[in-house]
Amino acid sequence: ARARCAQEKQRDYYVMVGHHLITLGLCGLSFHYNYVRYGAMILFIHDASDIFLDLMKTANYLKLEGSAGLFLVEICYASCFFSWPYFRLYLLPTMIANGTSIWLWWFRPDRPELSCPRDEAEYPGVWEACETIDQVVGRATVFWSALFANALLCLLVLMHVWWNCLLVKGGYDVLFCAEAEKGSKFHQGFAKHYEG
């Protein structure tokens, strides 16, 4: 965190701070309500896509582009171009948001009884888990925490869409700029506009 504050403020500095606060909030919620799997998946999805992003930023700062740099920046960009949308725009909404939405449906307060599935063949152990959570935490608490988590997840996905647009824009600018500018365009474009 200290290194983050010491860096030069980029264009998306406040979005990044918001992103970190939302991610910490989601992980905190998941650990507080014992949804450890959701928090671990959020951390895994972010870390998996950050590998390619950090490699690209490092190669970019070292100016390892073109044939002199063995096309390292371009290879890292291509890896990031495909991994970022997969992890952050596909897996995060489908795996995490879908899971918390199910909790919203099962624990909605307008129903006097639990609406968790009782089919042990299709959902092994879910009914017992629902009963235990309902007795220990309470249906209203589960509902409101899942609703808050879904709102935070929506904000997180919107930030990821914005950063993905910046990533695509940076690649577009490099591909369609003049040949003489291409060498320095990767370094200047991503260092200036993309810090996500």
Q: On the 0-100 scale, what is the average pLDDT? A: 78
N- and C-termini, Cα separation: 15 Å
Major pleated sheet: none
Number of strands: 0
Helix percentage range: over 70%
Radius of gyration: 21 Å
Structural class: mainly alpha
Portion in strands: under 5%
Count of runs of 4 or more consecutive helical residues: 7
Shape: elongated
Order of helices and strands: HHHHHHH
Enumerate the spans where pLDDT stays under 50 for 5 or more consecutive residues.
Answer: 191-196
Overview of the molecule:
This protein has 7 helices and no strands. It is mainly alpha-helical. Helix 2 (13-32) packs antiparallel against helix 6 and helix 3 (36-61) runs antiparallel to helix 4. The longest helix has 37 residues, at 139-175.
Keywords:
elongated; 196 residues; mainly alpha; 7 helices
Topology:
Elements (H helix, E strand, L loop, with lengths): L1 H5 L6 H20 L3 H26 L10 H35 L19 H11 L2 H37 L6 H12 L3
In short:
By secondary structure, this protein is mainly alpha-helical. The chain has helices at residues 2-6, 13-32, 36-61, 72-106, 126-136, 139-175, 182-193.
